[in-house]
From TrEMBL:
Name of the featured protein: uS12 prolyl 3-hydroxylase
Annotated Gene Ontology cellular component terms: cytoplasm
Names of the cofactor(s): L-ascorbate
Reactions it catalyzes: [ribosomal protein uS12]-L-proline + 2-oxoglutarate + O2 = [ribosomal protein uS12]-(3S)-3-hydroxy-L-proline + succinate + CO2
Upper classification of the organism: Eukaryota, Metazoa, Ecdysozoa, Arthropoda, Hexapoda
Amino acid sequence: MEKSKGKASNEDIADGEVAGINNGGSIEECEPQSKRVKLEADKGNIADLTLNHSYTTPLFTEQLKTQWSSRDKEDYYDPATAAKVYRDPFQVCLLPDLLQNKITCRELVDEMVQKVQWSRKQMDLYEFYQSTDLSNMANCKLLTSFLQMLRRTVRPWLQALTGIKLDYVSASCSMYTCGDYLLVHDDLLKDRQIAFIYYLSPWENAEQWCEEQGGCLELFSSDERCFPLFPVKQKVSPKNNQFVFFKVGSRSFHQVGEVTTFDYPRLTINGWFHGASNNELIADVMRPFGKLEFTMPEKNTHAVSVDEFLNEVYLKAQTKKSIQKRIEDNSEICLYEFLRREIFEQALEQLLHDDTLKWRLEGPANAHNYEVLDISTASETISRLIALFSNAEMFALLRDYTDLDLAGPNAANPTYNLQVQRWTHGNYTVLGDGAICEENTLDLLYYLNASEGAAVVTYLSPEADEAHQKNHNDESDDDSIGYEMEQEEDDSVLLTITPVDNALNIVYRCEGTTKFTKYVSRNTPLERGPVYVISCSYKE
Ligand SMILES: O=C(O)CCC(=O)C(=O)O
Ligand SMILES: [Fe+2]
């Protein structure tokens, strides 16, 4: 595959920390906490960013502080304010009615709609709209003042509450429309100490979202190696004027569930309170994702032959030559109607209706979420198809297609990996160690019951992953990330596979290339059932 320039990040979703450092210095520390931020809004009204008085009383602060540091396993609920602290799977604090004056929520949303410049964020991990950092929004007076309020009032308050030193704030606006999501992640990057989300939904009868509308903040527990576990443990629905925060750590796994309503966008002002570096924590929880296991080809004992299964056109010497030329030039090819029609139809029938096939969910949730066939339960056409793709004869055919040493006297130790995958709504894989190929690899992707938008595989250049790693580990601040990512995302995409029934996609990928299968949104039509993929990789 051609290398293209570019990089991408699936981690640093929004960091305007440079601006935050510059503006969040000592002057603000000296300002009285009780200062009320008021300003002239465009309409000539006075916008009021005063915090709910109940939250700033010494009594409440003391109570919440006790609860925050308590080892109590029970959730905490304060009837006076309706504030909550969830303990499980990790501690999260919910403060409803953050601003004293709810009119301000409408004004904030007006400004978001009228003045904020949104950019579409699309990668393995997410799809939503994001603004630049609030510190960079000179024309958005109210949002700028909101940031000031976070810096001057909330930061010292949170610092006192949690006992964590908080130096500065970074924040941006996010908008999730129907079908948008942010998959499992921990926020653990650089010096993020406390993550916060302020929810805005000031519309009549929509102030509190119900679960059917999607868009919940969803929390995961984790195993002893700090891998997140299915299923979701706790959900927080969007609620107008609610402020939510949690301590960022090696177990703070969360996601934004897909928004399923077309009625309203999910709007938030969200970001982090920054302090000490997380480097030690990050080093402690290096979590390499499992790698695929490769095995030797099966000997020709299963009485499956390519002659019997394949569309005969793909066995002709002339076709093989053209395929080889195309792969040499483009590193990929799609062979339509690859198997004989009746074989394809029998296989599909069995995949859809054979209850003896056993499927298991592939985790961990921060790496992938899709089902894999337990190959020992395969029978009839499916087991013969598996045999076909694992067979020495297939290795020889692929040698003819690619000129790779997968068979013949020069083939030292050819190996393969095979998975039969089942894809439905909510399934995905994300970039990570397991997805990077360490050696040149030949990938085959064969689709059954294909449907537009489901099980779409994207291949990315090695630079994409380097950038990903960099953003994970590098201490240096890079405030350009928020603005340039769009371009970088596009540049790093080498190839996107469009699923087509009975089509075999062959992709030769170089060392370092990485890939992911895009999240299948609920908007993807799957009336005919899930999409099946026979996914194989071969190495010389
Ligand atoms: O919007 C939310 O509820 C969470 C957002 C989030 O996790 C993030 O932006 O990192
Ligand atoms: Fe997050």
